[in-house]
Amino acid sequence: MNSRDRVLAAFNHEETDRVPIDFSGHRSSGIAAIAYERLRDYLGLERRPIRVYDIQQQLAIVDNDVLDRFDVDTTEVGRAFALDDDDWADWTLPNGSPCQVPVWTLPERVEHAWVIRSQTGRVVGRMPDGALYFEWAYFPWVENEPNHDALEEAMADVMWNIPSPPGPLVEGPDGDHLLVEGVRHLRESSDRAIMGLYSCNLMEWGQYLYRNDNFLALLAGEPDRAHDILERLTVFHLKGLERVLKLVGQYVDVINFSDDLGMQTGPMISPRMYREFFKPRHARLWQRAKELSDAKVMLHSCGDIRLLLPDLIEAGLDAVNPVQISCKGMDAAGLKRDFGKDLTFWGGGCDTQWLLSHATPEAVAEHVRHQVEIMREGGGFVFQQVHNILADVPPENIVAMFDAARGLVQVP
Amino acid sequence: MALIEELREAVVDGQAKLAVAKVTEGLGEGIEAGTLLREGLISAMAQVGKLYEEGEIFVPEMLVAARAMTAALGVLKPHLVEEGVASSGKVAIGTTQGDLHDIGKNLVAMMLEGSGYEIVDLGVDVPADKFIEAIQNGANVVAMSALLTTTMTNMQLAIEAIKAAGLRDKVRIIVGGAPITKSYADEIGADGYAEDASSAVRLVKEVLAA
User: Residue A409: its pLDDT value, please?
Assistant: First the structure.
């Protein structure tokens, strides 16, 4: 059974030789560059410049030697691109270590902070000294009167629009050809399951444009305007999704959609509001994805979203991520009992909000064994720590986590 | 009083324009600003908190209600000053140093303001000396928020700094944010922890009474 079979078997709710492992297959299962540098040293692997492919979250490309060490079963479309040294520029991590970033994302120094700019030259993200990631510096429809007719112009000035690879490498007249060749080569050269990250966020784009509080208030206070922008976003996303899937849909195993709907204590919005504004649009996007490929549909949605799961399932979801088990309604056993036959849980393998960074390796291993035992029964589970491994996570804990996930005796 | 009832309803329903109109109307009729505040706005926000805790409303509905309250309060404020209505307490609020996530913090600030507290919003990425300055300027509660495991530890440093400045017994300190728990709050020597905006209001009342 190879990696791809193992991941797809999980979706078919078949138990496998060991649980499939995701690590850095998408932008919420990765590792911060600072933690990755320490991990490589700890594993005794050769030193090499760390490549930070996700500038906003400071995530490192996890090299094949590490993926092999942990028997990782996933990769993502982006790993097929930015393979030339010319695609990378030298930069320095907040801890002073040298690293490289995609040339189009190279930060600049402005007043005790690093900043990143949109293509229009506007500062859209900012990392003040002492911080470990970039945060929004600009919300188009806070600074300017919201203009839904100028949606794409506004989107260009959002921090998250600064792309990870491939980004600009598949733009231009030769872009389609390069995209197809890159992904086909990845497919032929790796048996890891390939994830296509076509997030198509609706709630989040509303929040990026209007800012979170204003967009939530729009949903409650001006429903017609909220419907209008969400409909335009859906049409925009469908166009992008169709272009990509017509070209490379046949090579992709899992499509990663994304929309954070939860908080620590419950969903951000009521199930009624989800049904009115989001469910029909998610259903359209996911159905189109399935028409254009055989890929499975996964939604990344942080927090306690338990109350929304029945509607997400009805809308056509195959897998939910990251299963934030530290949140109120997200107890793994309860989720597995109530939704396990209808849904694959991609995540929930190890708490990252407290345990992974603070506990001993033994406690991490014990916790992971417990989670895996609950989640793997009857398949429907892909192991992933709940979110990106942050800069402060000790390498011992990372090794303990992945070893425990594969049922190996833990070597501290 | 029908007008106060209508004001309360306008706030609970998140109708800012109507809430402002009702406050203006009430003042015109000679109702005391303090009465409009207590029986209209504060009572409405208590109702909003209750509906949130019962799962009847969610954050968007709470937000529009808090915004309606803030708009109406804006009209009331000069009249409250004139009448000499004292706030229930002064709360200095901010996210910890290095943390830029302020959605939760803003919601807590709005709910507290709607419950009759004076808010000193220190914003995001707040160093310890800003909290100290706020205490020196009369804040009797410090409320700190952190979203990340990498920034939550700065809460403890801020509390240590407040102690070192000799101000710890002059202030109640409460903490919140996704990775924070009651036991962490106890461990770092905070006076309390709240898991959401509506319980933060209850907590402030409790710590000030203690």
Answer: 57
Q: Where are the domains of chain B?
A: 2-83, 90-209
Output the pTM of the full model: 0.93
Q: What is the pLDDT of residue A411?
A: 43
**For testing contact with chain A, the best of B18, B56, B100 (most A CBs within 10 A):** B100
* Residues A93-120: tens digit of each pLDDT: 999 999 999 999 999 999 999 999 999 9
CA distance A106 to A115: 9
Residue A322, preceding peptide bond in cis (omega within 30° of 0)? yes
Domain B90-209 -> CATH class: alpha beta
Q: Please, what is the end-to-end C-alpha distance for chain A in angstroms?
A: 29
What is the CATH topology of the domain spanning B2-83? 1.10.1240
- Partner residues linked to A321 by β-bridges: A300
Shortest Cα distance from A43 to chain B (angstroms)? 23
What residue in A sits closest to B194 (Cα-Cα)?
A: A265
Widest pairwise Cα distance in chain A: 59
Three-class DSSP category at A4: helix
Whether B100 and chain A come into contact, CB under 8 Å, resolves to: yes
CA distance A308 to chain B (A): 13
Out of A213, A221, A392, the one facing B103 most closely (by C-beta) is A213
